[in-house]
């Protein structure tokens, strides 16, 4: 299953904590929440999948390919392709996984293979492709390392 979300990618923000009176309160930054909502809405708009439906059943091993295309600032050279400055690639991935949890799959612990890239591109977008890993042999053959026991 694949889809494209036209938005400037957002990295997962760290949970914030504040003290209100005698209580400690933790919350997710608004930018993170808003980006997750855009992704959730896109899943529904493009494939009709709502919360709790879980397209891939619990326990199914999954491969995820993610491509994050970020708007290139005018100050960056036209020759430069890859976005090698903050934010970290893994934080972009975390935001997408949190948005997909409970919708596309039961839990992101089902992801056994991941390929992700971040680069400059126009229009800004996130490309997501999620597929079932059918057999252990398939997963092993996808890797360059031949010394793995794929029995």
Give a summary of the structure in a few sentences.
This protein has 151 residues and is an alpha+beta fold. 24% of the residues lie in helices and 27% in strands.
Characterise this structure.
It is a single chain. The chain is an alpha+beta fold and 151 residues long. It has a single domain, classed as 60s Ribosomal Protein L30, Chain: A. Helix content is 24%, strand content 27%. The chain is built from three helices and six strands, in the order βββαβαββα. It has helices spanning 30-47, 89-100, 136-141, and strands at 2-5, 16-20, 23-27, 62-70, 111-120, 125-132. The strands form two sheets. It has a four-stranded mixed sheet, with helices on one face. A two-stranded antiparallel ribbon has the order 2-3. β4 (62-70), α2 (89-100) and β5 (111-120) form a beta-alpha-beta unit. α1 (30-47) crosses α2 (89-100). The longest helix is centred in the first third of the chain and has 18 residues, at 30-47. It is globular. It starts with a strand and ends in a 10-residue tail after the last helix. The model has no long low-confidence stretch (mean pLDDT 83).
């Amino acid at each position: 299953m694949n889809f494209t979300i036209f938005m400037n990618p957002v990295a997962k923000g760290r949970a914030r904590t504040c003290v209100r009176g005698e209580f400690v309160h933790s919350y997710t930054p608004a930018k993170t929440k808003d980006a997750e909502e855009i992704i959730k809405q896109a899943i529904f708009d493009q494939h009709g999948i709502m919360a709790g439906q879980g397209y891939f059943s619990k326990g199914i091993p999954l491969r995820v390919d993610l491509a994050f295309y970020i708007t290139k600032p005018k100050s960056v050279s036209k020759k430069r392709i890859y976005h090698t400055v903050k934010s970290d690639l893994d934080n972009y991935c975390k935001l997408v996984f949190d948005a997909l949890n409970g919708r596309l799959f039961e839990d992101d612990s089902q992801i056994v293979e991941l390929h992700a890239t971040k680069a400059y591109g126009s229009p800004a977008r996130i490309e997501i492709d999620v597929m079932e890993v059918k057999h252990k042999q398939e997963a092993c053959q996808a890797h360059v390392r031949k010394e793995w026991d794929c029995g």
